[in-house]
């Protein structure tokens, strides 16, 4: 995705006022600089109309700005070019395509993230993979909700799942899942979708994997419950320990039975069953 | 031993909405920080403030690790939200139809006390009221210190 950067020159006291008004337009992230601030807009937004409003605000608040095109690129390239392979015991390992093959793991996943989340380095992904070791995927139907790089969907396919649906609201993640599934030889099993829950066919699943965040999980609990087969399992992470009780309470209200939890750092991974 | 600092990055990001696009991507990525790890952490910590513009100061260390501090939304952002709740159009300067109350100003000043360069709530309120005026917002009613003086 290409972006426009608006370089705004303004005195310090005015900057928060500019941020307040531009925050009402589709500018949602700002960078403070020594001479003002930078605001960013997606190139495929309604740039002409938004610039009209920006120009009005600039006139009223008396600031000047210039525009620069920021072409799409993999901003995470530096980290991705240096990351170390990771192992979840002897169960599975994750490496990039530039690493040599890993000899001492049962399942080896090759991930080139390209700005999508999920390399196994983060506590939440690590715990999800660790918890997957204790589940039976053979011949099952699986849903990876918020798939990122597709790492969990790929592992589910490697563990014998018959069909894995995967969805992400971020286009780079959707594209990354397609590429990584193919790279790992499970492209025929993993079906990637771009969008929210509504973008996924109304299938029933044995296992749902959801490493996203608290609010998305809370808002989706009932829908996920409906999509699970009787006795189906929900593995959820992306949840801080401070939010665990809230998620468990809401999951139980939605009909889930809380089976187990794993903790790593400040993060929790929760296992539920459709009661 | 304390880790060696590489740089500080100041951003304003909506709660729950950090993503690797600019400016988060270029600012952190150029330093070799794992952008996705920052986004995951920031979004998790701001689930209660989803959609609010939040100042965040990120410290990047020489070993490519990072830490960050999230502050309360800028006074101007809070003022605009308060004016909208009252149905004002809140267009800057052009139409002084947006308004907030002194109770709003006090609540915002108290919320921002740790960030404002002042020692009392009253001086904080004067700063917030000044910001309101620069936005074209009217502060309705009488400042509490004038009411107290009249009563005294």
From TrEMBL, chain B:
<keyword id="KW-0687">Ribonucleoprotein</keyword>
<dbReference type="InterPro" id="IPR036796">
    <property type="entry name" value="Ribosomal_uL11_N_sf"/>
</dbReference>
<dbReference type="GO" id="GO:0006412">
    <property type="term" value="P:translation"/>
</dbReference>
<keyword id="KW-0689">Ribosomal protein</keyword>
<dbReference type="InterPro" id="IPR020785">
    <property type="entry name" value="Ribosomal_uL11_CS"/>
</dbReference>
<comment type="subunit">
    <text>Part of the ribosomal stalk of the 50S ribosomal subunit. Interacts with L10 and the large rRNA to form the base of the stalk. L10 forms an elongated spine to which 2 L12 dimers bind in a sequential fashion forming a pentameric L10(L12)2(L12)2 complex.</text>
</comment>
<keyword id="KW-0694">RNA-binding</keyword>
<dbReference type="Pfam" id="PF00298">
    <property type="entry name" value="Ribosomal_L11"/>
</dbReference>
<dbReference type="InterPro" id="IPR000911">
    <property type="entry name" value="Ribosomal_uL11"/>
</dbReference>
<keyword id="KW-0699">rRNA-binding</keyword>
<protein>
    <recommendedName>
        <fullName>Large ribosomal subunit protein uL11</fullName>
    </recommendedName>
</protein>
<comment type="similarity">
    <text>Belongs to the universal ribosomal protein uL11 family.</text>
</comment>
<dbReference type="InterPro" id="IPR020784">
    <property type="entry name" value="Ribosomal_uL11_N"/>
</dbReference>
<feature type="domain" description="Large ribosomal subunit protein uL11 C-terminal">
    <location>
        <begin position="71"/>
        <end position="139"/>
    </location>
</feature>
<dbReference type="InterPro" id="IPR006519">
    <property type="entry name" value="Ribosomal_uL11_bac-typ"/>
</dbReference>
<dbReference type="GO" id="GO:0003735">
    <property type="term" value="F:structural constituent of ribosome"/>
</dbReference>
<dbReference type="Pfam" id="PF03946">
    <property type="entry name" value="Ribosomal_L11_N"/>
</dbReference>
<comment type="subunit">
    <text>Part of the ribosomal stalk of the 50S ribosomal subunit. Interacts with L10 and the large rRNA to form the base of the stalk. L10 forms an elongated spine to which L12 dimers bind in a sequential fashion forming a multimeric L10(L12)X complex.</text>
</comment>
<dbReference type="InterPro" id="IPR020783">
    <property type="entry name" value="Ribosomal_uL11_C"/>
</dbReference>
<feature type="domain" description="Large ribosomal subunit protein uL11 N-terminal">
    <location>
        <begin position="9"/>
        <end position="66"/>
    </location>
</feature>
<dbReference type="InterPro" id="IPR036769">
    <property type="entry name" value="Ribosomal_uL11_C_sf"/>
</dbReference>
<comment type="function">
    <text>Forms part of the ribosomal stalk which helps the ribosome interact with GTP-bound translation factors.</text>
</comment>
<dbReference type="GO" id="GO:0022625">
    <property type="term" value="C:cytosolic large ribosomal subunit"/>
</dbReference>
<keyword id="KW-0488">Methylation</keyword>
<dbReference type="GO" id="GO:0070180">
    <property type="term" value="F:large ribosomal subunit rRNA binding"/>
</dbReference>
